[in-house]
Amino acid sequence: MKGTAPAPTGTIEIDFERCKACELCVPACPKHCIEMGDRINRHGYVAALFARPLDCTGCAICAESCPDVCIRVWR
Amino acid sequence: MKDKRRETFPRAVFSRPRSLLDVRSHYCPGCHHGIAHRILAETIDRFDVRGKTVGVAPVGCAVLMYDYIDVDFAEAPHGRAPAVATGVKRAHPDRFVFTYQGDGDLAAIGTSEIIHAANRGENITVLFINNTTYGMTGGQMAPTTMLGQKTATSPYGREFRNDGYPIKVAELLATIEGTAYSARVATSTPAQIRKAKEAVRKAFDMQIREVGFSLVEFLSTCPTNWGMKPLDAQKRVLGEISGYFPLGVYKERKQADFV
Ligand SMILES: Cc1ncc(C[n+]2csc(CCOP(=O)(O)OP(=O)(O)O)c2C)c(N)n1
Ligand code: SF4
Ligand code: SF4
Ligand code: SF4
Ligand SMILES: [Mg+2]
């Protein structure tokens, strides 16, 4: 397996319109999967983006940290 | 765009609790009221008491929480939630009754109500949201405001000779005989959120087993009135605030006084 990229063991979805761009989920993710995006939602927030899905383990730590319950997680 | 990853991972491991209505909240970005609401809703689901719960909402930023939590609610005048909850619980002892109160609500105008509800050992559960300020009205000094903290009514910083010391509610109520459970938690790291859930479960359990009055104090954030980004507000909780307000369980009774 040497040299092959690890496969993700889970995935998330961020609710683009609900996100208030507080950034709390960004450092919460132990795999650094989330960063702030560059698109503005209807409420004027530049929402968070699931930028590195290949690294996601489905641990749900991001979702636990979101005050607006914008993140859903599957494994 | 629905991506293929969802087919690869069919098992939902985190979604909105049933008792948390699927609406956008009015809370500011990064405000920990949202986390406390979610923990409350998850615990209502866990104990399966959604159909028999009555919440008592405060005056403060959480004044609209009846729009978010899917249970029956009464709205109390400022600080009076423990008195309203006393009436609800005594009239309907089979209901699960909680109050949700800010620090301006519980520790200032409502000090008398909370102390006497605890002292009577009322079988109710209190979620106390300490964000060291009057959030809703624009960030005035609360009894919980930290020494040196600048607020709208302490522009040079809180000073103990004028304003006294930040009041430690979880410890204070633990000294009261009628209190069955008193704990202080925070929600600024994933580990703290896990512990906060555990404390809220214990507090619910006290009421369900009829052991008496239970309270969980949350060290919350108010990024807006602290003039901080949400991540810096969390750092303030982890440093300065929990340095003065230690996290922990201050009282946990094993059994009720009378059976
Ligand atoms: C009897 C009465 N006095 C004063 C007010 C004004 N008031 C509204 S909210 C509030 C303070 C709320 O602070 P807190 O309980 O800490 O809640 P937070 O908004 O910080 O969550 C005050 C003083 C009121 N509504 N009613
Ligand atoms: S589920 Fe875990 S690994 Fe995946 S984005 Fe969230 S925190 Fe990161
Ligand atoms: S924690 Fe939630 S609201 Fe905040 S940036 Fe992340 S997804 Fe958006
Ligand atoms: S004013 Fe403070 S407590 Fe109220 S919603 Fe905004 S951040 Fe939260
Ligand atoms: Mg407050």
Q: What does this protein structure show overall?
A:
The complex is a heterodimer of chains A (75) and B (259). With 75 residues, chain A is an alpha+beta fold. Chain A has 2 helices and 4 strands, in the order βαββαβ. Chain A has a two-stranded antiparallel ribbon with strand order 1-4. A two-stranded antiparallel ribbon of chain A has the order 2-3. In chain A, strand 2 and strand 3 form a beta hairpin. With 259 residues, chain B is α/β, with parallel strands linked by helices. Chain B has a single domain, classed as Rossmann fold (3-Layer(aba) Sandwich). Chain B has 10 helices and 8 strands. In chain B, strand 6, helix 8 and strand 7 form a beta-alpha-beta unit. Chain B is globular and about 55 Å long. The model of chain B has no long low-confidence stretch (mean pLDDT 97). At the A-B interface, helix 2 and strand 4 of A face helix 1, strand 1, helix 2, helix 8 and helix 10 of B. Strand 4 of chain A pairs antiparallel with strand 1 of chain B, so a sheet runs across the interface. Bound molecules: thiamine diphosphate, iron/sulfur cluster (SF4) (3 copies) and magnesium ion (MG). The site of one iron/sulfur cluster has 12 residues of chain B, from helix 9.
